[in-house]
Fold each of these.
Amino acid sequence: MWQNDDAFGGGGGFDTSNSQGTPAPAKKRSSDTIAHVSVRQVVECKEDALKIGNTEIGTVVIVGIARGIESSSVKVVYTIEDCTGSISVMLWLNADKDEGEDALPDVAQNAYCTVHGKMRVQNGKKFIIAFSIKPVTDLKALVVHKLKVAHTVFKLERLAQQENDQYSATRQETNDSMVGGGSNMFPNTDLSFGLNPQQLRVYKAVQQCKREGGSSKDEIASSLTVKMPKKELENILEFLVSEGHIYTTQDDSHYLVTDFT
């Protein structure tokens, strides 16, 4: 019931309708997103574009007091202040306005106004290029704005966490399928050496032994979490020896990995 369409442009605190896609922490959502933000969020952001969670904010909405107004024939520069800080807002004037139309927005100094625009950076300083600046006619709009700022942060950061969790789970499932078993089966495996899951299991079983004499076939077989026929084990051991991954030690039935130190 507090919604002021002139002040907030209608709708909710942000719009991510064009930002659907496969979640990945390294990817940003569409910069078409519109969000209510505080001045501090803009001024203190570390990048050239404002991000909340994984979402890049394309259009910011700020509500504050116009502390300073400097006008020229082509633009007006406002100093907008809210309870978190102040920022410069530049509005380019429309040279095509008909005679008699107001050349400047009806915003008085030290009065509340709503700004829609895009964040820009010049010489390391953040400012806003405004699409529109309108006076706030109902002070309830200030409360609505603050609620939307808080809701936007909560919603987008929670969405980012869900995306990151989903990405991690998908990556874990992929790793599990590559080794053909649980992700903790081979905790120190960074490379599969082109081996299939059965060959990799046998290789890791041999790798567990640090004795100079190596592991016997029986020890290797008993250490496998997924049992296999004796003939299959012997064939895999023979293959690993022929490929140089392992070698025989005191006899033809004891093995060590070639990277043993």
Note: The domain at 197-257 is CATH 1.10.10.10 (Arc Repressor Mutant, subunit A).
Amino acid sequence: MNKKNYTRILRLFLLMLLAVCFCLPAQASAANPKNRLVTKDGYTYYYNSSRKMVKNKFATIKGQTYYFDKDGHMLVKTLFQVSGKTYYATNKGYIAKNKIISYKGVSYYFDSKGVRKTGWVTYKGYRYYFPQKGDYLVSRWKKLGGYYYYFDSKGHMVKNKWVDSYYINSQGHRTAEPMEKTNSSKVKKISMKNIKQNPELPTGCESVSLTMVLKYYGFNLGKTTIASSYMPRSSSNFVTAFAGNPFSSSGCGIYSPGLTTTANKYLKAKKSSMRAYDLTGISFKDLYRFIDNNTPVIVWNSMYMWTPQASFTTRVNGKTWTFYRYEHCVVLCGYNKKTNKVLINDPLSGLVWRNAKSFESIYNRMGKMAVVIK
């Protein structure tokens, strides 16, 4: 073979070798499945639309999210972290979302993106609390953000109930002191002074009722102190503020959330350890237990027991509230079971006895709003 032919054959061989080198990866890639899960040697892998094995990534497959580690193994039945966030892969591999999962004896909550959440969680209509470490709270009291909460045997935050002689309101806050259940007498009366709202506060019954209770506990304040310095105002929001002007006959009023905030603003300003609690939702008969423990209760009823008439509404924090014509705020400070009457400290009428059944009916219609200070 002459030198010229040898050179030609060598060039042809090199060209063929290069072609093989370039074609092999393409052929190998073409041999991989596309958009498919593959199980091999006990592990499950996923090949994407480019026929490449997914590694160190999430992948969404038929509406479910999965995670594949550095070796391409699909994670199964385990907790794992990605970018500082904790996830859980179920026994079928997909990521748990909007669920409470028990893993190695500890329960965790994972949100709509599959990320573990701690702190307050609402799940299927119930409130839970998940600490940073350990299981969610069960059958115990816990102080959070300055308030004590109770979680039942299922971990649900308790509300509108008595637990260990404490009343827990609609927000889950317990009263500061226990209200012991007593074999109450037929007659109970708390001694407290009356303050008339007129003429200074023609529509300021709420601030005056609060003032009467504060003075009962020994605070020194004037009739108009709360209305002028502590109670927020609004043009139409009667839930968290006073709608209108309490110094005017055209003013409307303020409901229990706003009056509770007002009371606590005053108590904090006076550096008092006492706090106001919104008991809205409590049954009328349960209010007697506070009276038995010498705790007057601010309640919402109507002027002179007239029938409340729906006037206008406002929406606050996703809830629609109705303001009623003849709305009135008074202090419940006694009862007489023999005569079926309750003692009311009324900023308009003074200390008066009202028919308990009629008073309860209006109390219920007004939304069972009540506030105590302890």
Note: Helices lie at 3-31, 205-216, 225-229, 256-269, 284-292, 356-365.
Amino acid sequence: MGRIILRQARLDNMKNEFINNISHELRTPLSILRTSNEALLNFGAAEDADTRNRYLGINAGIINEMDTSLERMMGVMLNSDVNRKATFRYVDTEKLVNSIVSRYTLDTSANIATDLENGPAEINTDPYMMTIILNNLVDNAIKYSSPDPRIVIKTTVRRKGWELIVKDNGRGIPAVHLPYIFDKFYRVPSGDLHEVKGYGIGLAYVDELVKKLYGRIDVNSRPGYGTSFHLKFKNHGSH
């Protein structure tokens, strides 16, 4: 009984932090949107085409980011993608990885290197789920690797499956937290609750989707030396 009470108390604390994180993360982009709209409406920014387009571009980027974050959050909370059956088809590793790299190198200062050990190769996977997995892992790597994120995405295709590694040069994760990082709502504590944005659900999401793709995910990390996520997938049909 004592263990059940302690577990429930821990879950309640994580949910409270989850709510605090949502409030903080939504408040910041909404404040930027408000300021941008005020400039367009009240301070003549709309009269100059270049200035107007710049503000509208900022607004569009913020809205897209909020939409993506909320979709990811609700996907985990409602298990919408976890309950969705994987749709396997052959995907080119180079196109898959480069689509992620181009997005983050456009929006951030991250240095993302790729290592396609077999060169461009085909893998049998669900491209929608794999894109979510890669987005979450790269997004985490950038958040925890500032101010100079250096990330490596490596793929290795083998006869009976394939492997994916996402490695960063970030702050690393203390060993005491590693057993829990795939738990829903769990976030590694830091000095500032809001130092790093996020809901504490991304890795739980990744773990569930990896299982849907007949894979497993492991993590190696040391404080001050970065983190490496190693994913192994069996070929669909050989599980």
Note: The chain has a mean pLDDT of 79.
Amino acid sequence: MKIVQVAGGWDFSLAVTVEGELFSWGNNIFCQLGRNSSHKGSTCPARVEFPDKVKVAGVAAGLRHGLAKTDDGAVYGWGDNKRQQVVNFDDKVVCSKVQSPMRLTLPLQSKVVQVAAGAYHSGALTESGNVYSWGRADYGQLGRPCDQPYDPTPKLIQCLQHVQAVVCGSEHTLAISGDGRLYSWGWNEHGMCGTGDTNNVFIPTVVELQAESIMLIGCGAGHSFACVKR
């Protein structure tokens, strides 16, 4: 089979095929494989079944949760839901793990073109260039005002527009805006937000780069990188 995208979490892996199928393998203690199984893990890739007949077009792996976007712009999530970084349940329902892909209800006006997953927060980029975030918020991970330790409801980061790409580290996020600038926010203990200090960043802040354009961005747990054209 031909693989078109891969993603790796803390202790599990995901792969999308050209046919739009999703495979997972690794640890499954937190249901991060999305296979609706009680097995502790798998050393061999196996297909992830979705409740609807969908074609997966993109995937992201957080610490112990996964997100997938379909070719029609829908988003599914599974795995660790400790900070409701996967799916928003109402106050009467407590679910710390989501065993299999569940379709998320997002307040979006356009299709999702990219998903991003941190340790306990998640993001979605729409075709109109808007970014929505949800999950853990105490380090500024959501890039928007939040007076609670986490926010289970996906909400728009209003100060960002025409975003081209978004990626998550463990507790921080990077995004490329429509005018080619790099923004960062979230946990900054190791300086991975690139602001010149180690203070946590609670709103998207421009990262100054001496470059003509940014071609690719990426995040690790406590570091960031950007491939640029000078």
Note: The first strand starts at residue 3 and ends at 8.
